[in-house]
Amino acid sequence: MSRHATPPMSTRLLRSYVGGEWRTAADEGTPLHDAVTGEEVARVSSTGIDMGGALEYGRRVGGPALRELTFHQRAALLKALASHLREHRDELYALSARTGATRGDSMFDVDGGIGVLFSYSSKGRRELPNDTVYLDGAVEPLGKAGTFVGRHIATPLRGVAVQINAFNFPVWGPLEKFAPAFLAGVPSLVKPASQTAYLTEKLVELMLASELLPEGSLQLVCGSAGDLLDHVTEQDLVSFTGSAATARRLRAHPAVVRNAVRFNAEADSLNCSILGPDATPGTAEFDLYVKQLVTEMTVKAGQKCTAIRRAFVPAELLDDVQEAVCERLARISVGDPSNPDVRMGALASLEQREEVRRSLKALSDAGRIVFGDPDHVEVVGADAERGAFLSPVLLRADDPQRAEPHEVEAFGPVSTLLPYTSAEQVVELAARGQGSLVGSVVTGDAEFARDVVLGAAPWHGRMLVLDADDAKESTGHGSPLPMLVHGGPGRAGGGEELGGIRAVLHHMQRTAVQASPKVLTAVGNSWVPGAPRSEGVHPFRKSLAELRIGDSVVAGPRIVTDSDVAHFAEFTGDTFYAHTDEAAAAANPLFGGIVAHGYLVVSFAAGLFVSPEPGPVLANYGLENLRFLTPVKPGDELTVTLTCKQITPRENADYGEVRWDADVTNAAGDSVAKYDVLTLVAKEAAR
Fold first, then answer.
1. Do 47 and 223 contact (CB within 8 A), yes or no?
2. pLDDT tens per residue across span 610-646
3. CA dist., res. 99 & res. 91, Å (int)
4. Which residues are catalytic?
5. Considering Cα of 112, then 118, then 119, then 121, what sign does the dihedral take?
6. How much is the pTM?
7. Structural domain of residue 355, as residue ranges?
8. Domain tally for the chain?
9. 583 and 453 in a common domain
């Protein structure tokens, strides 16, 4: 079968994409059912897949192809891929409805996943070099003479990122793991949960059909993982989303342990939301709390790892919150997610519904149900028994010390109201979740928020503080964002997904390189002080194609005079006493007399190194890392050495960024100012 072939979406066996081709198992597979109608959607099996061969193919074909590209080139491919998927998202929406998702749920999953690709593309272009190596931190001097220095670099691991995903987000889940791995230069092997694998299969089909991805950079296994983990090496990574019990089992796999494989887990999480004592009925925060709680209970039918399971409320407000939440839940219509009037669809499967009902029995031992019936629900446009429908269920546990609410997760539209009496107590109760992905505090009291955030932070990967000020822009309790870490300590898995560049670096090896400045410059493609410099044609006369790292100009000297300092003070309005009052400046223990403005020094330096005629340099767009190191007094001579430090071509422009090392020294050779100058330079000289 060809790479982009599309069998009809009838009852059929889902395919895997490994070794550069689509493959279908030889057996009949296990049936998968429509969450709404109970009809068989497809069958799934991975029988016959050579798992070791798939990993080796990723290492041998996908890895080298990705590593040939720079970070910026990979980022550009992510952007193009996101645009391609956005054009085809209706195809994903159609299948998403069969998982029990409403249109809003599907947008959360599909558009959220596409948004992750856009976000990583943007961060890659803004925060990573147009190179294949990442420089992690500053150069460290290791000897007195400056001939022995060190620096950390990050390079892509030479393995495959094995990504085992949960059933609840069959689009967003794979994409939020794939994006940072791809940007890092590491190929992915996606293993979706079987219940909703038909949607992930479609996603991967669309990704491959884009013809944007280097061969071997993405593989898919539908069905059992089989002996997949038996074949992982020290260069591979494993990322898992699912139950804490499964995470423990996979983390302890002999090959994972033996080879010290990087293992990231995002697991069970008894997330909490805390209402502040100030948020009484009638306040904006009270209404925000109630609305957020109901939203988190009903979006994706509560099948979110970030959903609110424990709702902590000041004891004196418990009745008020219960009444308001029940009133709002009563307006939630459950049924066929394709019906625009339906607010909550079905759970992913009948088996999942039974699992939630079992968990509810345990939770009921600690409290009582105040809204909903686990065994009965009125549905719109569907059969309540054939589809995996469940009523939203709100419990109330008047004794917050009971163990069950802090230990049992009902992975569905279920939450428990719990009272508290002080900030100290609610922090202690939040910690009893033994590690959560996210907690939220809804309050207008900044001091209460500070106490709770700092107290609960060690048990949480993310904390949201919601109030009337940020409500309009807030993405909500349950929405992980690609620029922030998504993960949590303890029970939540002890790992981190997303997290912007942090997630990219998770797929790379940090290595300390100790060498001479010349070698460190060559390794990192960034000039290091002490490395050779090349003088000759003024570097501002060179296009990007002609410019080389180490190209330099030395300009000066220029004598700073009393009149220079006085004129600069008058012209700019900066009449700080150290520049204008001889007696006061003499009393200053740092200066001992009149000194030149720091910005006067920088301005003189620019006048010294500039090449004023039109040429390849298009613009100066900033300074970074500016430090004034030695006071400059009238009579001092200034010399500036400007050296090409780093060259970053822009992929879709006819210019690039050049970073210059600027070192301004006095007659004694002491540095008075050091900084980086950023310019935009044409790729080719004008003709």
1. yes
2. 998 998 999 998 999 999 999 999 999 999 999 999 9
3. 14
4. 266, 305
5. positive
6. 0.92
7. 272-476
8. 3
9. no
